[in-house]
Amino acid sequence: MFQHYSVFNSKEEALEHPYPEMNKEEWTRVCDLFASEEFQRRSAINKENRAKLKIVHTWERGKNGSVTVAVRVRGKVIHEVEISLRCWGRKRVTCEV
Fold it and tell me: In the predicted model, what is the mean pLDDT of residues 53-72?
């Protein structure tokens, strides 16, 4: 959601373009959070801390429900694995790597 919000130049502009499948009331609360001083302060601290990391772990959810996990060192992917999870209800049934 923050990526969607950060595309716009101001909170007011972001409010005119709600996040997909989110009603205006919810989007207004989210925008208020992202625009708050506390969120901005913590975001700046987190960016500084991430910049200090030598090894970065990322994950991305695929359209088919799979998750791709990557380990990067200085921007280069050194290991990547796709994990496919099949779940029914709250109980995980299988995990394929």
Answer: 72
